[in-house]
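Box 4.2: Ligand-aware structure prediction
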Amino acid sequence: MGFDFAHMMTLGPEILLAFGQTLYMIAISLTVAIFIGLPLGILLFVTDKGLFLENRIIKSTFGFVVNMVRSIPFIILLVALIPLTKILAGSTIGPAAASVSLSVAAIPFFARIVETSLREIDKGVIEAAVAVGATPWMIIIDVLLPEAKASIVQGVTLTIISLVAYSAMAGVVGGGGIGDLAIRFGYYRYDNTIMIVTVVILIVLVQLIQQLGDWTSKAIDKR
Amino acid sequence: MIEIKDLSKVYKTNKGTVSGVDQVTLSIKEGEVFGIVGYSGAGKSSLIRCLNLLEQPTSGQIEINGTDLTKLKGRELRKARLKIGMIFQHFYLISQRTVGENIAFALKAANTPNNKITGRVNELLEMVSLSDKKDVYPAQLSGGQKQRVGIARALANDPSVLLCDEATSALDPNTTLAILRLLKKINRELNITIVLITHEMNVVKEICDRMAVMQSGRVVEEGDVYDIFSAPKTELTKEFISSVVSFDVPDSILKACTGRLIKVLFRGDVAGEGVITDTIQQFNVKGNFLHGSIEYIQDRPLGLFLMELKGQQEDINQAISYMEKRGAQVEVTTNGI
Ligand SMILES: Nc1ncnc2c1ncn2[C@@H]1O[C@H](COP(=O)(O)OP(=O)(O)OP(=O)(O)O)[C@@H](O)[C@H]1O
Ligand SMILES: [Mg+2]
């Protein structure tokens, strides 16, 4: 079975719906990842050895939790989080439900990316801020975040792209989305038309996100 | 003003402990420019970084204006740091903030009201002659300009002390001189005590009043810059001085000398050439200059001459005694150093 244009047109609404679901899941989990992962990444960084809020207990506790969540395969996380999903999303199926697990997976992922971005900052710049008598809060807001912003934007790009891939597995809990469509039609039903269309959509989506991310990162960098 | 007592800093590394600063006791006076020299690894950075507790000393005390800094923590320490400016070899400006914002950052650290910040930033920029660069990012500045921004940031909260960690080591000679002049001006006009570390004796000669020489974490010599230049005690200090004042006379010339080689040193206002001329005229000796220079240290001349005296031994001895009576320090030497 080759590419069937008419078939694609009849499934048009379904494809559109799936696209919307993908965006919905990514938007929610990305927002959560940024709101929780960013502070978490900063915390992991500033409590590190030799930094201005050095604290071994906090560093190792949060570091352990982050590693733990990151080591669980996403499919298992999806299932394991069903009780939490029920509480937060009110249901265990649908895009909103899938967003819960996606968020939980994205938080530690993004937190590590933020931590790595902050590590790229010249320690001397941070030290100069300490020497000036700045508070930890000032150093975070006026030194760490501006200095790492270009790199963090690259990290957001990477997170979105990973979310696009993970969201494909959301079908397990009836999350829907483009990836789910590809699996349901293309993989189980050998529907090559849908397979090709969805894969093309995913490729274009990922390319666009990467381009936009690169451009933004460059545009805000003053170095 | 700055009293360093028995200060030690030991670093713990995977391979064991490394001594950065070893039992240093120093007293730095208000309003002076104090230089610390030493080779790489001598512990200069470790010492100066202890002065604002960027490095927590292992033992000892640091008193600045009567407060023991080593006892301070958190808010108290931050408050003390507002009054201790610091500049660095690699400037360490916030690259994503403009020159003006970099300086404003220091003012915000002191809770300066917003409506006062702009005025103060302009004032500081004027002081370092960078008024036209306020809205420029550090990447667009030259090394010397970046250091000026560093200086403006360090002076933002009217500190009583300015610490300079190799502040001119990344700059070319002309820019170095300009930055040193600026530091001297700040020292004089704002009465800010400056502690600077360097491995270049020229920097010390240019602006320091007193100095210390460090080796293996310890201070091996300390004193007035002029005194140390005219009478260094340790071999290490002599080595450092020879980079500024050196008597490199080719071996062939030295070998050809038949008379007595003497090194004559004139301090301060003793008019060197006059004394030598008088000596040659009054005694039955011939003088032959091999090398000579007059260095100005803290605006006081320091004359150093290497010469050969020819004549009867008796006459030469009398000539030397005469020169010593006139205030010269004479050293009979076999080689040119
Ligand atoms: N953070 C650190 N951890 C371990 N050892 C250190 C650390 N900082 C300095 N040291 C060691 O302490 C000693 C003194 O170093 P320091 O940086 O103070 O020397 P320095 O005189 O400033 O040298 P340079 O001219 O190269 O800057 C050296 O042996 C160095 O290896
Ligand atoms: Mg150093």
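In the box above, the bound molecule is adenosine-5'-triphosphate. Residues 5-220 of chain A form a domain with the MetI-like fold fold (CATH 1.10.3720.10).
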